[in-house]
Amino acid sequence: MRTTLDIAQGFYVSDALPISAQQCINFYVSLPQTSTITDANLFSTPGITSLIDGVDGEGCRGAHVFAGAPYFVINNSLVKLVRSVVDGNESFTKTVIGTIPGVQRVYMADNGLQLCIVSIPDTVTAGKSFIYTLSSSVLVEITDSDFDGPADSVAYAGGYFSFHKSDGKKFFNSNLNNGLAYDALDFNVAESDPDQIRGQGVLNDQLYIFGSETIQQFRSIGRVPAPFAPIVGSTIDIGVTAPQTIVKFGGGLCFVGAGVNESPAVWIIKGGQKKKISTNSIENEFSRLKIDTIPEQVFSWVYAESGAYWMGISVPGTCYVYDLVNERWHERQSIDEFKLDRYRCTHMVNAYGRILVGDTQTGNIGALDEDLFTEYGILTPRSVTSRPFDNQGDSVSVACIEAVVESGVGLSNDVTVLTGQTARGVITKGSGGVDPQIVLSWSDDGARIFYGHIPRSLGKIGEYNVRPTWSRLGEFPRSRVLKFTISSPTKSTIIKVEADIG
């Protein structure tokens, strides 16, 4: 009997692995919007091409599009990425604007005329805030005596830069359309609940003040001083756990947060209502993090491309990515030295017709590329681990398993890709692509140990009728988990998996 095996459900790892150990790493689930041969399939995540090569260890701390141009904070420098086209040839250069001290991620916002950068207090600096003025091309530190710094974030709403301080309930703002001028009376207090302010967000020109246990909405009423007034009855009984995850997404504000005596989850708020979009599996992963490291170690990015809307939540070791259209989670990971680790993108901005990205490992500035399947020339291994297949406690004979794939995706020539580096810093390389392989392995102990590791060809270039098939697999015991891995710099699409079951 020919049976389709369900492998395209995305990420869902249970506390008890025999229940579910589904992983989807550097693949994402696509649900066709019309009738096809399958209800769900797997596509490879985009690669990253380099626009500017940076220095190892100089990670990106912030990114923002200001007056149509992208700006990045790389290591201690604010840089502008400049695009030039000469005789149809495109090139990119970076212009160093000035110095932004610190080691933590920064917050950035603009009012159309000025770009504000907040370098939050860390182990290196006490925290400073800066204004870059477009007309003069000058970056200066905010030194107004009425600036109540150091600040812990910046947002722009209603003509004002808004800042908050994590040591209390107070937030304050700049003068109208002027990030260099301040009034000592330009402040407000989020007092609907005694929790402390942890972050800010802006939606529909309303300012959302995120506390540890509640969120309160404010709007500008035009008064001077203290232009922001609370919206009566707008308090939401959920707080933010990871302030650097507050992003606009899906027509709302999304973040990692929790209520009183609750564990962190992923929430979206819009229309004054909250909705949880994380699964129990994602929340279990959050609960394993040390709560005191979450603010520094967990952050988000968002982007939209080809009709899809993505939000990534980066944590130590991996990045959980939510697909708004298909409502599925997957993971993105990058090679760092020998191992797969957290996805190397720190920030994403849309400029010059591309999704531009900052980098965790180097000072590179890159761009997502759906037709590229490496990251800065480094291999992107992809794998999918199925749910346990169970036959009501009985073993079952499996004569054959076939991965229905888009075959014939091989390259015309093998290419050299980086695969990591040794502890002594020696770069390791590999080559491939002419004959890409898909590898089947399996586990009978709840995805703890995998066996088999049997490769099959995905088809050389133009070999569109290749069918990766594994036969004589014997009997499946009570429960078996399948894993498919592709480690090739080529397009990877798994349409479905079928088995001949006796």
Layout: helices, strands, pairs:
Elements: E1 2-5, E2 12-13, E3 21-25, E4 27-30, E5 41-44, E6 47-52, E7 60-66, E8 69-74, E9 77-86, E10 89-99, E11 106-110, E12 114-119, E13 128-133, E14 138-141, E15 153-157, E16 160-164, E17 170-175, E18 178-189, E19 197-203, E20 206-211, E21 215-220, E22 228-230, E23 239-249, E24 252-258, E25 265-270, E26 273-276, H1 280-287, H2 294-297, E27 299-305, E28 308-315, E29 318-323, E30 328-336, E31 339-342, E32 345-351, E33 354-359, E34 365-369, E35 374-375, E36 378-379, E37 382-385, E38 389-390, E39 396-405, E40 415-421, E41 427-432, E42 437-443, E43 451-457, E44 469-471, E45 475-476, E46 479-486, E47 493-501
Antiparallel strand pairs: 1-47, 2-3, 3-37, 4-5, 5-47, 6-34, 7-8, 8-9, 9-10, 11-12, 12-13, 13-14, 15-16, 16-17, 17-18, 19-20, 20-21, 21-22, 23-24, 24-25, 25-26, 27-28, 28-29, 29-30, 30-31, 32-33, 33-34, 35-36, 37-46, 38-46, 39-44, 39-45, 39-47, 40-41, 42-43, 42-46
Q: What does this protein structure show overall?
A:
- There is one protein chain.
- The protein is mainly beta.
- The chain folds into 2 domains: 2-45 and 383-501, Jelly Rolls, CATH 2.60.120.260; 47-379, Methylamine Dehydrogenase, Chain H, CATH 2.130.10.
- It has 2 helices and 47 strands.
- The strands form 11 sheets. Strands 1, 4, 5, 39, 44, 45 and 47 form a 7-stranded antiparallel beta sheet that branches.
- A hairpin with a 2-residue loop joins strand 8 and strand 9.
- The relative contact order is 0.16.
